[in-house]
Structures are given as C-alpha cells and as structure tokens.
Amino acid sequence: VHPNVSQGCQGGCATCSDYNGCLSCKPRLFFVLERIGMKQIGVCLSSCPSGYYGTRYPDINKCAKCKADCDTCFTRNFCTKCKSGFYLYSGKCLEKCPDGLEANNHTMECTSIMHCEASEWSPWSPCTKKGKTCGFKRGNEVRVREIVQHPSARGNPCPATSESRKCIVQRKRCQKEGKGKKNREEKRKKSNKDEGKETRQESKGRAARRQNREQRENNNKTQPKKRKAANKEQNLAPIDTAH
Predict the structure, then answer these.
(1) Alpha-carbon Rg for the chain in angstroms
(2) 60, 110, 121, 141: which could form a disulfide with 89 (CB 3.0–4.6 Å)?
C-alpha cells in the first residue's frame, strides 16, 4: 500500500488519502469526484447527486455527469429533468417543442395539445319572461351544456355554454300569490268545516236511530202489560140487569 493510502477511512470510503479523499468505496456506494476550488476529491455516496447518473461495475460503482442541458438524468442520453430554459421530451432537453406539441411552463415538458370538449345540449327550458311563466305571449327558452375538457394553451377555445331563443305560448293570467294563497286557505277551511258538519250530522243521525230503537224496545215490553190490565178491567166490570 502506498504511504499516502489509509485503511481507516471515514464516510463510506474503502481506501482514501489525505490529499485526494476517497480512492475507493465500500460495496453498493457510488464514487464521485467533487470539486473544491481548483482541487477535486473523491467521496462515496449512497446515490448520485443532481446532474449525475450512476453506473455499476464489478470493481467499482461510479457517478457520471449528465449532459450540460440536463438537471437530472437516468443515463447520459436520457434526461429526467431539464435545466432552466429547456423542455423535456422523450428523455431529451429541447429549446423548442416539436410540431403538434406545446411547451408546458409549469412542468417544463412538451405535452400534447388539448382542445376544448363540451357535453351535449340539455333540453330546452320552459318558456319564460322576466322569470315568470304566465302573463305573456312571447318569451324566451334556454338550453345549456358543460365543459368536460378545458383546452391547453394552444388548444381550441371552448364554445358557448348556453343558448336562448324566442318562444310563443298560450297567454294566461298570473294568479296573485297572496290571493291564491288566501283562496287555498279558504278552501281548506271550508273543506274542514264541511267535514266537521258531516261528522256532526252523522253523530246526530246515529243518536236518533239509537233513541228510536230503544223506544221501540220499551214499547214492546210495556204493550203486553197494558193489554193484560185492560182485559182484567173488562172482566171486573158490573153486569147490567135492567133488561
């Protein structure tokens, strides 16, 4: 072992030196050179830093730099995030998106152009005028639809979501709300009164029928006694012997 190489290293180094830092790493760690001023030293990390990608070899695992326009990458030829001013598309960083795609400034990616999509029209509403459905002959009816897909920046704009047209109805008078309510209340009271009247009449009828029935039963009980008393009086009457 070279005199400048130490076996008792810190920070995941398998071998190191006082001047160059880590020279090799422990298993599964990545070796990467970090610049400090004019000097580069080796460090061992569990994952590669931003701007680098990891490669594994039988003898050592290394971190290699991404392309200059890549912020993070999977391999040197496949970026996963671009630096400012570039848009990601299929692993590449582009200054301008291809035809048929648009730049998404939020995700910094080239995405498909989304056009607006609307649902089917609803049925036409009842014919109204100033919010009323009576008291007029000509009014308006409307129909609406909903937006189911909003457009992207370069997509086709959304169409109108409501339509109106003239309509003609058979003219009818509007019933005043207070008068109509009063009439309904009076009808309800009258109905209740009639029901109460019918109930009282039925009760009186039942009472009269019950009284008549009881009277007939009493008459049936007393008539035999009266006939018996009459016969007795007739038998006790004095016999006329003047003739």
Answers:
(1) 54
(2) 110
Tell whether pTM > 0.85. no
- Given a contact cutoff of 8 angstroms between Cβ atoms, the answer to whether 56 and 36 are in contact is no
Is 90 exceeded by the pLDDT of residue 213? no
d(CA 87, CA 92): 8
Cβ-Cβ contacts under 8 Å for 6 (sequence gap 6 or more):
15, 16, 17, 18
Structure tokens at 16: 């190191």
**pLDDT, tens digit (0-9, with 9 covering 90-100), for 6-42:** 556 877 898 888 888 898 899 889 999 888 888 888 9
- Can you read off the two tokens belonging to residue 40? 């580069």
For residue range 39-79, what is the model confidence (pLDDT) as tens digits?
Answer: 888 999 999 988 899 998 888 899 999 999 999 999 988 99
Q: How far apart are CA 200 and CA 32, in angstroms?
A: 106
* CB environment 206-234: b (16+ within 10 A), e (fewer): eeeeeeeeeeeeeeeeeeeeeeeeeeeee
Contacts 24+ apart (CB under 8 A), 141-145: 141/165, 141/167, 145/118, 145/119, 145/120, 145/121
Q: Which residues contact 187 (CB under 8 A, 6 or more apart)?
A: none
